[in-house]
Amino acid sequence: EVMLTAAPRRWVDVDEAIAVLNEARCDPPKPVEDSNCGGWLDGVRILDLCNVIAGPHSVTYLARFGAEVIKLDSALPSYDSGNAVVYGFSHMRGKQSLLADIRSVEGQQMLKRIIREIDVVVWNAPDDQIKNLGLDQDSIQAINPDAIFCKLDCFSGVRPGPRSNYLGYDDLVQAATGIMVRFGGSMETPEEHAHVGTIDVMCGFGGALGVATALYHKLKTGKTLRPCTSLAALSGLLQIPFCHDFSTRGPFDEPSGRDCQGYNELKRFYRGSCGGYFFLCAQEQDIAKFDLLPPLDKLANLRQCDRALFLETTFLSASARDWQSRLQSVGIGAAFCENIETLRSENSRAAGPSAGTNQGSFSFSTYHDHPSGHCVTQLDPYAIRPRRGKIYALTAAEKYGASTRSVLRDLNYTDAEIDAMIDAGSVSESWSDEYLPS
User: Fold this and answer.
1) C-alpha–C-alpha distance, residues 120 and 251, integer Å
2) In degrees to the nearest 10, what's the CA dihedral of 128, 134, 136, 142?
């Protein structure tokens, strides 16, 4: 709401600007000089109440920087547990899994104990569900006034709207906001953009950034914020580049559809002689550089409408890898398009304490003793590589419920009390006998 009612800019001198800044509390700790300092979020405790993709992904992203996470799911699966386990291979990494019925009396009491002990609560649910379970802003502040609550949902915005409390998922938002039309090329050929996660994962990043911003704001001002985002909000953010018009902008002719090769003849995929593809990423000011690579030296003399056919034909004279090397040698951007199986086989290593930030553009960890009982290879989570601050190699996703007893013990429940809660169905130590069906 504050963003929508921002004060207009005022022109002031430096002294007045400093005076205004000094009115707000601002006393963050001094930076640690030790180059071997820990993670940015070391010691931050998070309760993850999310399911499916966006919410859990946001929290596991925070775990990479040192956050301690308790993942709470229902004592009995309340949605597709098969998908929960499959998605969990990725977003359950680095988390303790607790299974509990927070609608029961014992579950409500346990939930309040956890909230008193943590710094952040994250949940993907609409406001009406949150209020019904006593997790709205007022209720959480009554339990722990310092706790940051981050909410992710499908359709909400800064202010309530007619769909704010609608349930939904990635595909619904793709259809509602035009992504299926953009990807498919027309209203007659709408198409889903990727099977899962296009907007989900972006929303997860948005939620993580919201939590990080709230933690920083609290550190500097002492005030607790309530970050929120939604799939619809991130879908809008994703499409902002297509929503702005200005006097020097060309026609709105963005490439789209199933046969789209790129943006124009200088930014698109091309095929080499052996069937492989590479992506050419050049700009108009690079045209002169093509003169250094005969027979591409004819490009500068062609009309723009003739360039694509000329390049398509010329690039068939050598392999995609050869063109990548030759183009890069004269300062033109080009990248060979490798398939995921090859990337994984060439960049995998045994899982260990390293997060893979020094491995180059790709890094995969192979868990030979994965809790599922299978050998599992997963992409290393290191999208951000800070010069100072540690990125953690997260532990493999444990079986749902594996930490139920240890989490409750940390909350000062006795084994007898835990056994009684299990017998009553208030908590559970597993959804199934096996991690995956044998």
Assistant:
1) 46
2) 160
| CA distance readout (Å), 391 to 206, 286, 344, 365 | 19, 37, 21, 15
Task: Report the candidate in 182, 111, 166, 179 with the shortest Cα–Cα distance to residue 411.
Answer: 111
pLDDT 10s digits, 263-285:
899 999 999 998 899 999 999 99
Give the other-Cβ count within 10 Å of 78's Cβ: 11
Helix H or strand E encompassing 278: strand 277-281
262-264: strand order across its sheet: 262-264, 267-271, 277-281, 333-336
Say what the pTM is: 0.88
Distances (CA, A) of 389 to 5, 33, 68, 207, 303: 36, 11, 16, 21, 51
d(CA 362, CA 349): 11
Contact 357, 369 (CB under 8 A): no
Q: How far apart are CA 282 and CA 266, in angstroms?
A: 5
Selecting among 73, 170, 200, 380, the annotated active-site residue is 200
The torsion angles phi and psi of 2, rounded to 5 degrees, stand at -60, -35
Give the list of residues 6+ apart from residue 183 with CB closer than 8 angstroms, or none: 174, 190, 191, 192, 193, 256, 257
Phi, psi of 128 (to 5 degrees): -65, -35
Strand ranges for 88-193 from DSSP E: 95-100, 120-124, 148-153
User: pLDDT of 196-244, one tens digit each?
Assistant: 778 998 999 999 999 999 999 998 888 898 899 999 999 988 888 777 7
What residue type is 53 in one-letter code?
A: I
Q: Does the active-site annotation cover 200?
A: yes
Q: Is the omega angle on the peptide bond into residue 295 within 30 degrees of 0, that is, cis?
A: yes
